[in-house]
Each structure stands twice: as structure tokens, then as C-alpha cells.
Design a protein that fits this description.
single chain; 156 residues; alpha/beta; four-stranded mixed beta sheet; globular
């Protein structure tokens, strides 16, 4: 991987939800946890990575920060949220957990060899993708990784 331009920088992604408790329960079933220091009746901080967080905010709380009108995620795509997991099997498990918890599968699995993913809509209609990428492909980049695997296949 390349060195980040701003090491130590944290990412906070804010998304509006209709029912905060229902959304917390949904994401807890997918294996996420929440920071109680940044949680109240209007917001919660979902831990995604070492320095990546999703703030689930009630629509009213979100509107306090937004300068433009809120769109309905069930009718308009504003963003697609993607997070990685450690294996193909975990992609399938998290996707199945999302559907079992009330989410909607978007389409079937996408398999590119070096990357495997599934997509779902959460309870509010936000689009999520759970993906696994071969660590060597993440390090080398997909084209160089593909070339290295072709070279290895040619030598066999």
C-alpha cells in the first residue's frame, strides 16, 4: 500500500437514519460495535476500522449539519459505502446477516478473482458493499497482481 498523505487522519462518515436504535441493532448484527462516548439519543459512532467511523445520525440531527435538503436514500443514490472483511467467507456471512436483519440484497456476488463482493441496502435504503481483496492485489494493484499470477501460471 502507499503511504497516506496525512497519516493519523481519521475518517468520520455521517449518514442519516430514520430510527437510530433500529439501525444500531441492524449493524450490531453485522458485527459492528459503537463508541458509547460518542453516542446519545440522536447519534452513535459505529467503529469500522482503526481510524474510520460511521456516524449514524437521526434525520433531524443530520439536518442540523447539512446545508442542503436531505434526499430519500430509497429513491436517490447519494453515495455507496464499502467496507472490507478478511475473507470471501466473511463477505458471504456479513451479507447473509444483513439480509437476515432486514436489509435487502442488491445483486449476487461479484467475483473478480482478486476481489470478491456482495451488496445490500440497509434498513434506510443506503447502499453498502462488503468486499474482500487478496492482500497481494491490495499491495501490488490489480493489474500488476493479475500479471504476476499469469506469469506464475505460465511457469507451471
Amino acid at each position: 500500500m502507499t503511504t497516506p498523505a496525512h497519516p493519523g487522519r481519521m475518517l468520520f462518515l455521517n449518514i442519516p437514519v430514520v430510527d437510530l436504535e433500529r439501525s444500531k441493532a441492524f449493524f450490531a448484527k453485522l458485527g459492528f460495535s459503537f463508541n458509547p462516548k460518542f453516542t446519545d439519543e440522536t447519534a452513535t459512532c459505529m467503529l469500522v476500522g482503526e481510524q474510520a467511523f460511521v456516524m449514524l445520525l437521526t434525520r433531524e440531527k443530520f439536518a442540523e449539519f447539512a446545508k442542503l435538503p436531505l434526499a430519500d436514500p430509497t429513491t436517490h443514490t447519494l453515495a455507496l459505502y464499502c467496507f472490507s472483511v478478511s475473507s470471501r467467507e466473511e463477505v458471504d456471512a456479513v451479507s447473509a446477516a444483513a439480509v437476515a436483519a432486514g436489509g435487502t440484497e442488491v445483486d449476487g456476488a461479484e467475483d473478480y478473482g482478486f476481489m470478491y463482493s456482495r451488496s445490500f441496502y440497509d434498513l434506510d435504503g443506503h447502499g453498502w458493499q462488503v468486499m474482500w481483496m487478496d492482500p497481494a492485489a491490495a499491495e501490488q494493484g490489480p493489474e500488476e497482481f493479475a500479471a504476476s499470477t499469469q506469469d506464475a501460471d505460465a511457469q507451471v
